[in-house]
Amino acid sequence: MIDSPPPQALAPTPVDRFNLSPLIRLTLMGLYIALTLPLPFLAQVTQAAVSPQWLWVGLILGAIALWGALSERVLVDDQGIELTYPAWVPRRGWQVAWKDITALKPRSTGQGGLVYYFLDKQGQGYLLPMRVAGFKRLVDRVQQETQIDTQDVRPLAQPWMYFVLLTFTAMLLLMDAWTITTAIGG
Length: 186
What we know:
- The chain is α+β, with helices and mostly antiparallel strands.
- Helices cover 44% and strands 19% of the residues.
- It has a 4-stranded antiparallel sheet with strand order 1-2-3-4, covered by helices on one side. It has a 3-stranded antiparallel sheet with strand order 5-6-7, with no helix packed on it.
- The longest helix has 27 residues, at 159-185.
- The protein is elongated, with a radius of gyration of 23 Å.
């Protein structure tokens, strides 16, 4: 009789990590900077009631808050899907096991787009993160784990939309440079 090796346990699937798309993060941070950077300079020139120093404090705190909001990440393994934020961000994430997901339901947005919610056995909804890098790979993994058809699921915004917004943001930053130079130069 030949001894066969003992059956090996299936290795757990490694955790896939999906971060917010760098294009989206760059565009939104750039837009924030473009919209707010001139304010302290203009407050100084116009002798506004709000001190430029307070504006700088507010702008820095706002940038930190925005960076925190843009730091969401999705973790996926063979057990389920989880939306998390770094520990310093007070925003709460969520976690749901694959076995508890019963459906992926579309909902229209106020702007006419579609977002999707995972529904669990209790009817609780979890927003499918749609602005992550590797969205197609995420959706394929959702289909693989849940057997829910995801062939019609598309990202909320296409990359070209963010490229257009980034282009306009760059133009706004050029205008900011002129505004700040004029404000400082008097």
